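Dear Dr. V.,

Thank you for agreeing to look over these. As mentioned in my earlier message, I'm a first-year student in the group and I'm still getting used to reading structure tokens, so any feedback on how I've presented them would be very welcome. I ran two proteins. I've put each sequence directly above its structure. The first is here:
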Amino acid sequence: MTLQYGKRVLFDNVNLKLDGERCFGVIGANGAGKSTFLKIITSEIQPNYGTITKEENKRISVLKQNHFEYDERELLQTVMLGHKDLWNIMQKKNEIYAKPDFDENDGIEVAKLEEKFEEMDGWNAESSAGNMLSEMGIPANQHNLLMKDVEPSTKVKVLLAQALFGNPDYLILDEPTNNLDVKTIYWLEEFLLNFKNTVIAVSHNRHFLDTICTNIIDIDFQKIQQFTGNYSFWYQSSQLLLKQRSTANKKAEEKRKELQNFISRFSANASKSRQATSRKKLLEKINIDTIQASSRKYPAIIFNQFREAGNDILEVSNLSAKDEHGNYFFKDLNFSINKGDKVSFYANNKQAITCLFDILNGNKKSFTGKFKFGTTIRNTYLPNNHEHYFDNDINILDWLREFSEEKDEVFIRSFLGKMLFSGEDVLKSINVLSGGEKVRCMLSKMMMLEGNLLTFDTPTNHLDLESIQALNNSMINFKGTILFTSLDHELTQSVANRIIEITPESNYDKLMSYQEFLEFKNNSEK
């Protein structure tokens, strides 16, 4: 398969076979062609050369991205529309049975339809769709509501249920965890681990890819290559190879031995984990000769402190805040932040954490109670909603210069270059930047200000895997204190040493890892 637009070659002479009870995670830099690859599989786009062959009578199901397509449909109907053949048979049956002049030919036709309906397990279709919605946290009393009358978060779950409905032979998922809460992501992981057919998924959620994937499809070098194992194995292997290739004096056999040892350690760990890789027992098939260093670039995210903080970081006393309807986000919130803490904030209502962070950073004035930072603290903040920072018509260079004591253009350009803004990129107007570019600008601003207390509100939104990995590493290596919230399981697990859960009624402060916290919550809710 070859695909190019003008002189730009996206894929060149690609050969792949995707089948079996496996899950393929599709990775690649922004613009590499991940979504295009999925559209080729589903025949939305035709390649310039080559063929796409699908097994006959196999059903492909795709996660829909248009959240308004089914606004006039009930939730239950929207899910069942995921199996179009079954839905069409149901409609045709109803039409024939409703005919006032029902005759013998109608009886013959409806008998054939009933036979097909039985083969598709049609009698259980409605209850299966309802059970799926309920398992996702959508109560039965909402199943007959119209899609236009439910919350956006509920729509996301319904469209996901639609894609999963009816046991498709091939399941195509483009960013399935976007806008899902932690419980639903966990439910989806469990569903896919038990799914008996083929899954092809694009995701920036590393924990999700690690949990479900038996194989990684890497789009790089204008090629699409397939590797056995999950994302972490692919990433660590490619980084190890990159490091080894830069050390010219190492012998080939030593390199091979180090990789073999790494594979052995990885296989041993994976066999004890909740991962599809262990379930499929495919790790022994890994061929290190097929793995190569990635051509993708990682931003140099390095947070330095203008000075080391004293022992007094932050004290919050009896803090309370309400939403626009007068309902409490949190009430009488109390906690102290210790030097070196890396605290993840958790809440069922994500807005509660945004409200807290906005209060602490002076962006929200309506609250009761008090908080106090230590005299040595410089707090830098990446808010979830940062669009107001980019409503001017100036270029990136001048935008970042406003936050720098050093105004020299060479210095600013050098700084931006580390964040992958090079050459003419720095002259782009800030009001036309993509979501990922804006987040990289905000991270540049935080780095420039050299805070010793960093606050992040869902920082991985809009970032590609390379930037997420770089941010994750920088948060681990930062010597100061961090307050953050994130839906990225891997980032939270690897960074946080403490979890504070916020609810309208009470709050929990746990000195534990994120995974330990989730297990604690799961056990306490049983």
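The second protein is here, in the same arrangement:
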Amino acid sequence: MTPPILILRDIDLSFGGTPLLQGAALSVSPGERPCLVGRNGSGKSTLLKIAAGLIEADGGERFVQPGTTLRYLPQEPDLSGHADVMAYVLAGLAPGDDPHRAAYLLQQLGLRGDEAPAHLSGGEGRRAALARVLAPEPDILLLDEPTNHLDLPAIEWLEAELRGLRSAIVMVSHDRRFLSNLTRATVWLHQGETRQLNRGFADFEAWRDDLLQQEEDERHKLDRKIVREEHWLTYGVTARRKRNQRRLGALHAMRQARREQRRPTGDVKMTVTEGGLSGKLVAEAKGIAKAYDGNTIVAEFSTRIQRGDRVGIVGPNGAGKTTLLNMLTGVLAPDTGEIRLGANLSIASLDQRRESLDGNITLSEALTGGSGDQVSVAGQNKHVISYMKDFLFQPEQIGTVVSALSGGERGRLMLARALAKPSNLLLLDEPTNDLDLETLDLLQEMLADYPGTVLLVSHDRDFLDRVVTSTIAYEGRGQWLEYAGGYSDMLAQRGRPSQEDVPAAAVKPKTAAKGKQNNSRKLSFKDKHALEILPGRMEALQAEIRQLEGVLADPAFYGRDPSAFDAASARLTAVNDELAGAEEDWLILELRREELDGNFG
């Protein structure tokens, strides 16, 4: 077995209060690919900095094999002090490293090298930092959130690049797909301690859940034993005081162990504040287009978004995802085409850059709007400290200014603000940035239960697969196409690489029912599926209508239970509306199918 080239052993670190790390360990051999996972605030980035030699632990040992080269990618790269990006990247090379590789990596990452560091976006700064740490091809790469602010093409390029390196790589990331594709071992940082699974991240979550269940079972057993011992203490200690002092001492020791036993950190409790129901139609776009300075951003795009849809928008940075989102919600008028918005829309949004957060206000002011100590959530007032706890903030943070929060804390704060606003349409622009895996799970559950509509811009492939019902994907040269399902479904239906390099004249948009453009010679997968299930749906709705009409025909029903009568009447109206919509959808699809069969059959 190859000896490790990096060892962290019995690492302890405290910042005044509860220890952050207690006996943490990490061992890395040549070519190994472990990921470091854990809740936000569990110490992952800190342990990575200790491994990089940037922080000195309170106790424990750090060993790096002599002659080993190591590079560290921080969450927030600092490019200050360098004339341009190329100078920044070249400064990371050691004597004998190839400067041509630095130029190659910058070109692959879409940078020229002459950009001024002060004018870079977050994504461009991340690309420059990646070029700097990848160029030397070190023995060990320590990567802290390498996919943050990268678009999908860059993430997929990075995966391919890392697979081809000989380097050992330790990764911290919230991107499940990235970790599953690259890792071969998983180190779980939990309650200050590390536990290792000698398999990649794809097997981690089931393993972690088993361990947490075992811990809960052990706590339950300890609780039951304490109850038994307390019963004995109350009724039996007098007669056996001298003989049983040791048993009494054991009870006190168990109580102390129970007090000191560190429970798992809390869960984010997400409750969305619902606005009134929107109309069945949320937005309809017919042939919308937008261009800036002769550059086509959106070309002749049509879609129909209905209440309850979860629509993902994907594409490279600069493709126009936010422009398309703004047109679909009426914020930006198209150059040509028509946008029709539904009735009674209440919109809540989460912006990508957290720009709506004033860094000078406190956490409390950000949640309450600066008035009082109450937050209105789901129609009820809640004390700001209680609402903070729902999002894993501590009471003592109530006066913390926003600028002092970590990236993950700012992300949770933005979610807390967005979810407290009454809405029936959620606009989420890169909501997964800086969120840990458990918080992502809870956000996914909340979105699944949300009765309104969701428009989501994201580069997180796993999140898209778990959340969205359809995906609008950039196809190049201003062309956008909508696919049924998530990101993986989109790739399967596309069956080819992106059309980014295909001439615009060669790209023919699709036409689907409900106004979606599609000149293909067959119905889309989504439309075929709808044609198969709509007859059964209509039959079920007709049966429910007959049943409700029978109930309401009882002349004594209203006198017996007025509230039940009103509920049944309202349900009958709603079901009739659903049936009318289903019949309209089926008719449009059936006419489309007949047209295609007649033209091409």
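From my reading of the second output: The first helix runs from residue 44 to 52. The chain has a mean pLDDT of 82. Does that match how you would interpret it?

Kind regards,
E.
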